[in-house]
Amino acid sequence: MSQYKNHLTPVKTRTKPLYLLPLHFYGYQLLALAVLGVIFFWFSRNEVLDYSLSHYWFDPATHHFPWKENIWLDRINHRLLKYLVIAAGAYFLVKGAWQKNPRMVVIAVLMGLGAAVVGILKATSHHSCPWDLLAFGGHAVEYPLLSNVPALSGPGRCFPGGHASSGFMAMAFFFWFYPEKPRLAWFALFCGTLLGLAMGYGQVMRGAHFFSHNLWAGWWVWLVQVAGYFGLSQGFAWFRRGK
């Protein structure tokens, strides 16, 4: 019997069937997420790394982030790259639905789910962006993660990093290549992680986010994608068995 239980459709099909992953795969992912969560929580509470990186791009003489309106960071990183990733997800959704390819549809759904969860968390957050904070020429007060919200917390809606999540969406391509090409799958996960970090750091340079905001964005996206794949693959298997 195959380790990955590819019994939903024939293994040799060229249409990338949906597959089930063993439970220990999810156990390893949850363990890794738990360890990273502890590390990221320490970064968020300590704040030294966040402030060190943001102060590097801040001009205390003008109380301004000089790269805030930079054309490359604004139009290329903040807009074009995001639209390209979204377009890739839309392509997979439309083509997968047209060809009745469940794996393509699931990849697109996972991309959307990860970014959507980060967007909801960001929209309800009281943490303000660096360019809104007193320490960087603004009027809002920053506070560590899970601390009491101060009265002058500012406009908020800045945690986790929404733009970084657009890059981290691409981590879903791991499930496109796995299990037929595991090395390529892990490489896709690495590239998606790198893309999210790069897009997020561009926002750090502009003063739009702290670095830890982007780390948490990647954490949430991967958690949602792993949980989402488990639920969708199990649901599809149940549906096929019932037919």
Automatic annotation (TrEMBL):
UniProt keyword ATP-binding present:
no
Key words, A-Z: Membrane, Transmembrane, Transmembrane helix
Q: Which residues form the Phosphatidic acid phosphatase type 2/haloperoxidase domain?
A: 106-224
Would the keyword Membrane turn up in this protein's UniProt record?
A: yes
What InterPro entries does the record point to? PAP2/HPO, PAP2/HPO_sf
- Membrane-crossing residues? 21-43, 80-98, 105-124, 159-177, 184-204, 216-239
Name the UniProt record assigns to this protein? Membrane-associated PAP2 superfamily phosphatase
